[in-house]
Specification:
This protein starts with 6 loop residues before the first helix and ends with a strand. The longest helix is centred in the middle third of the chain and has 21 residues, at 98-118. It has 2 domains: 1-65; 68-212, no CATH class. The radius of gyration is 18 Å and the shape is elongated. Helix 4 crosses helix 6. The chain is α+β, with helices and mostly antiparallel strands and 215 residues long. It is built from 7 helices and 6 strands.
Length: 215
């Protein structure tokens, strides 16, 4: 069994960027994480270090069991400056405007870079491992980055809502406006997701079932 990270290494892992996995630490700490397969050094200048998929898993395991995951439980809290995409229906909504637009754009570009660095073939048109372990936030980020509007905390005025489902690697996307729902489907497909439109048996409402594409 792999020896667990030291306390200092754990702090570096915990402080990694939540989307890109970019690391900050001393050269000694970063080199030790690379040696253990928890990080890698980017070949291009400025040669930053990033978490590997194994490092991301350890970062998730490091989260206290009684603390909800930010992607599903507090998607827009903004606590400690951590970015989280809006999944729809949040009571606390980050302020709209140029600053939020820049944050979303930066997060999306970071996710594309993470795809390039962690997909074995460097593909940027296909979801990566981080997205498969953060399905709700990944799908919501793709929608928000494309300009779709999420549902507000009062459920008024329409807007998308992304939620987990019992199916593995699948999220449900609901949007009361049919044209907007189809636009969400087109956005997710362009972002590398497989999307199917379904009907709720009891209500007749249409919704999307989306899964990260593997090939």
């Amino acid at each position: 069994m792999t020896r667990p990270p030291t306390a200092a290494q754990r702090r570096v892992i915990d402080a990694a960027d939540p989307v890109t996995g970019r690391l900050r630490g001393t050269e000694f700490q970063l080199a030790a994480l690379v040696k253990r397969g928890l990080a890698f050094r980017h070949p291009r200048p400025p040669h930053d270090h990033f978490l590997t998929p194994t490092g991301h898993r350890i970062r998730e395991e490091a989260r206290p069991t009684d603390t909800p995951a930010p992607a599903e439980a507090t998607p827009a809290s903004g606590a400690a400056g951590v970015f989280a995409a809006r999944v729809g229906g949040e009571e606390e909504i980050p302020a709209a405007g140029p600053a939020r637009t820049r944050e979303v754009h930066s997060a999306w570009q970071g996710l594309l870079e993470l795809r390039r660095m962690t997909n074995t073939d460097g593909a940027m048109d296909r979801p990566c491992g981080w997205e498969r372990t953060h399905l709700v936030q990944a799908a919501a980020l793709a929608l928000e980055a494309a300009g779709h509007l999420p549902e507000d905390g009062f459920g008024a005025g329409g807007g998308y809502r992304v939620r987990a489902t019992p199916q593995p690697e699948a999220v449900a996307v609901r949007e009361p406006d049919g044209d907007a729902l189809r636009a969400c489907a087109a956005t997710l497909e362009k972002a590398g997701w497989q999307v199917g439109e379904h009907t709720e048996p009891r209500t007749g409402a249409r919704y999307l079932l989306a899964s990260p594409r593997r090939t």
